[in-house]
Amino acid sequence: xxxxxxxxxxxxxxxxxxxxxxxxxxxxxxxxxxxxxxxxxxxxxxxxxxxxxxxxxxxxxxxxxxxxxxxxxxxxxxxxxxxxxxxxxxxxxxxxxxxxxxxxxxxxxxxxxxxxxxxxxxxxxxxxxxxxxxxxxxxxxxxxxxxxxxxxxxxxxxxxxxxxxxxxxxxxxxxxxxxxxxxxxxxxxxxxxxxxxxxxxxxxxxxxxxxxxxxxxxxxxxxxxxxxxxxxxxxxxxxxxxxxxxxxxxxxxxxxxxxxxxxxxxxxxxxxxxxxxxxxxxxxxxxxxxxxxxxxxxxxxxxxxxxxxxxxxxxxxxxxxxxxxxxxxxxxxxxxxxxxxxxxxxxxxxxxxxxxxxxxxxxxxxxxxxxxxxxxxxxx
Length: 380
Known about the structure:
Layout: H1 3-6, H2 8-14, H3 21-29, E1 35-41, E2 49-54, E3 62-67, E4 77-79, E5 83-88, H4 99-104, E6 110-115, E7 119-126, E8 129-135, H5 141-153, E9 165-169, E10 174-178, E11 183-184, H6 186-190, H7 194-205, H8 207-210, H9 223-237, H10 242-258, E12 265-267, E13 276-279, E14 283-286, E15 293-295, H11 297-309, H12 318-332, H13 337-356, H14 363-378
Antiparallel strand pairs: 1-2, 2-3, 3-5, 4-5, 6-7, 7-8, 8-10, 9-10, 11-13, 12-15, 13-14
Helix pairs in contact: 7-12, 9-10, 9-13, 11-12, 11-13, 13-14
């Protein structure tokens, strides 16, 4: 019996409609309406599932940790069919122990993204404008701040605006940057002008590897190392797929060995379509450079097109949008088709891990379908 079968009753309740937690959180904590924005199934840990709920009024999100046994969750509250829950604020996160002190410096701040034990980003006032402040659990922030400073110094070489870095506090493990005065561009990309928008983004994105920024930043993590970690995590949850997952990783390793020698250019590192902003009538802005470093431009293109392919609300077929972006990018920075396909497979493997961690009873068959699709795409 795999762990999904072992937890079938709990996972069925967690996937039910309506979600049982919003009403429960409203009765205990007020505010709301509470909306689930994150969920991870991790049955090998003391807490078998972590959920994140965000309110609609700017209040702090709530992390719900679920346990089967009350002894593992002191001061927890029993929830019918789900065991015991513990509810915590981001300021209770033991990995982000400096967050309360940082938030105390910014009264009225609004949390915009929180991932338990990983990072918290909030928006706060800054003079007549606003800033985004990030709090980290470890020592990454000096490197990130140095990269942000280098990016700002090279901004004149780029086809998009970037945020000005502001304060860095090593003791509090926090860094901040000014807010770009733009609006999300994803709606335009989904709309009837999507092809023109995708092409404009491709040309703009290509100015990053064309810049001299590679001399100022450090190499990014090798994608294969991350893929191998993801494979280990998948096998721990779904051991029945171990042979196929290992075979996929081996195939990707062989594909990488056959590629041309890598280029070492500046890349964004997490070039999702949602990272783009529209500034004014036709200006562009790009945010969230936490993955900035020296790497291969095919990695950025693979990230963009892999995410865009899963967009379902586009006026123009998503594959056509991907082609427009890739073609425009390649006009400025030539792309290795074999390496691009390799990195698309790497990005798809990351999506496999998210499927394997989904707190729902049908995760294994959904995972199997996705794995089959990636195996077919990666076939020689």
